[in-house]
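step=encode ok
step=design start
structure_in=
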């Protein structure tokens, strides 16, 4: 089941809202606002961050960072590192709701 997400006045209907029913709007947030998840199990080498940065430079930032309501990063740590490398001040985020617990954060970050 696909739904619609509002992105700066336009509609994107490709996101499956049955996975994240609470996700309705993609917002632009300051990178400084985002809080990396301290127990994130994924690490990104400099080469990986450079690859992600190259993809963002070539194709745009087309995969928003997933955050909780307290600005904690659930998924997208590598994209945030790449955005910093590119000097971006803001990134697109999808807010998934209340702060996530350790088990839920591990589910999304792994």
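sequence_out=
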């Amino acid at each position: 089941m696909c739904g619609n997400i509002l992105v700066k006045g336009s509609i994107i209907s490709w996101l499956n809202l049955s996975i994240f029913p609470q996700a309705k709007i993609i917002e632009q947030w300051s990178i400084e606002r985002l809080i990396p998840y301290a127990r994130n199990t994924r690490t990104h080498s400099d080469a990986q961050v450079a690859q992600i940065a190259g993809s963002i430079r070539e194709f745009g930032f087309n995969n928003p960072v997933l955050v909780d309501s307290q600005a904690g990063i659930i998924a997208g740590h590598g994209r945030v590192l790449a955005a910093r490398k590119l000097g971006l001040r803001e990134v697109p985020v999808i807010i998934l709701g209340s702060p996530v617990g350790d088990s839920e954060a591990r589910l999304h970050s792994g």
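step=design ok
step=annotate ok -> The first strand starts at residue 5 and ends at 7.
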